[in-house]
């Protein structure tokens, strides 16, 4: 059962956690074991946060058992590209120059995922400073494709795409300027989206007004991408492009799922969600 959980989508995991059918501790242990077992072959992590993740999983389970209100992503593990700041966890930007860099604050997107109960399991590989569409760098070497070591994982978010595709994490945080989420998503067979500018605030942009690099979701299903955006979206003072951008709404989720259903790529459960988005939200996000 533990290994099977690694391939469940976040929507299913969240519903099962809310019904107390899946333990956050059991889930996080399963993905950590898979991450550590596959790391030598896939090389998709720069840092694995075993102790921190297990501590947060125990806290999530405690909140669940006490009947406390649960966030959209309560107990759900995620991987985060190593360009995105994570408080207390080193963020190298894929460069030896920043090999010991430990941020004091989370990026806004990470802060919002934490607030909704998501659990960081590790920082994923990126080309140095995210500067090319392959995932290799002097700091860690090369990250191969999730399905074939002879093929590229794409980049620069190759580590996040490989971690998600290989069942290590159901969802991941990536970045995209000129294709850095979409290229590795295509190479590894997962869902990569570069949403409109400002929908997810980018609090690390060096030039806030001239910024073309976005913090993005990456997942295995369209529904999981919608769920991530619901948690991450909304305006923030750090990003002027986010002014007027509200959180993802039920109608936004419905439109996204309707498009997917029309293309024939949704499961029967997602088709039902198109007809009744409130059912989708309850099943995905409510205890």
Order of helices and strands: HHHEHEHEEEHEHEEHHHH
**Named CATH topology:** Amidase signature (AS) enzymes
Which assembly state applies to the chains in this document?
single chain
Average pLDDT, all residues: 89
- By DSSP, the count of extended strands is 8
Give me the CATH superfamily.
Amidase signature (AS) domain
Distance between the termini: 22 Å
Query: At the first level of CATH, what is the class?
Result: Alpha Beta
Radius of gyration: 17 Å
Count the helices. How many?
11
Assign the structural class, choosing from mainly alpha, mainly beta, alpha/beta, alpha+beta, or little secondary structure. Answer: alpha/beta
Helical amount: 25-40%
Q: Which strand order spans the largest sheet, edge to edge or round the barrel?
A: 1-3-2-6-8-7
Number of domains: 1
Structure report:
It is a single chain. With 287 residues, the chain is α/β, with parallel strands linked by helices. It has one domain: Amidase signature (AS) domain (Amidase signature (AS) enzymes), CATH 3.90.1300.10. Helix content is 39%, strand content 11%. It is built from 11 helices and 8 strands. Strands 1-3-2-6-8-7 form a 6-stranded mixed beta sheet, with helices on both faces. Strands 4-5 form a two-stranded antiparallel ribbon. α8 runs antiparallel to α9 and α9 crosses α10. The radius of gyration is 17 Å and the shape is globular. The C terminus is likely disordered.
